[in-house]
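Workshop exercise sheet. Pairs work together: one partner reads the sequence aloud, the other fills in the structure field after running the prediction. Swap roles for the next sheet.
Pair: D.N. / O.F.
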Amino acid sequence: MPYSRRAAVYDVEYTEERDVGFILGLVGQAAPSVLEVPCGAGRLSLRIAPYAGRLTVVDLEPEMVARTVAALEREGHGGRIRGRVADMRELRLEERFDLALIPREALQLLPPEEGRQALAAAAAHVAPGGRLAVDLATFLPVPGGAPDPDYYDPARTDGVWATDWIRTLSDGSQLVRQSAQHHDGMSIRFDLQYRVLQGGRVAEDWAAGMRLHRYSRGWIDDARPDGMAVEAVHGDYDGSDFTGDSPRLIALYRRGPAAGR
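Structure field:
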């Protein structure tokens, strides 16, 4: 099943909002131009657009870009929005931005060496004095809290299938997602099964999967793009410093006034 099919239900599947306040705080710190890569179906884009003078959204999947741009246009932001289809590892835009964002676990779809390429590609689009933010999951248990990311359960046995949720689509049908996870060294593979129910019957079903890679605190320094300094490394969206048991690994890089390390 092509990834474009998931794009049609992405806004129902991914409803995480824990990062929104943190991201809007970055946008509000003198960031009139923003690059978001990848954009998915516009979960963050729609929240950022009212506060950005210029927003460019990028994704490898054309349907994701189309859905995001259409949603932004419906909200009246079309004149300040640009959508591009591109591989984040090979991003080449003739633009520079005050803020570049690689949200949630997007970079972790790539192994760390390829993640370094994507980070450098995004950084090349940051204007002097601008910032680059990359948000990673540590896949550690959250004491007393819900798992983060919400599709990962550190207590689940590998290979055991479970129903994650049942959610209602815009046409009134129901989308059911089941998943199983498999730990494999420095990565976690997720097998996903989707079913669309109409009147209690299965109208459609498809399978998908993804592999997410673990990134370390040391990688943040080792992968630092040319001309950028590590400004901060947070362990969660409250701005706390990263520690060995933090649920997130959020790096902020800032570009100096001139090129060079």
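Discussion prompt: The CA atoms of residues 95 and 125 lie 6 Å apart. What would you look at next?
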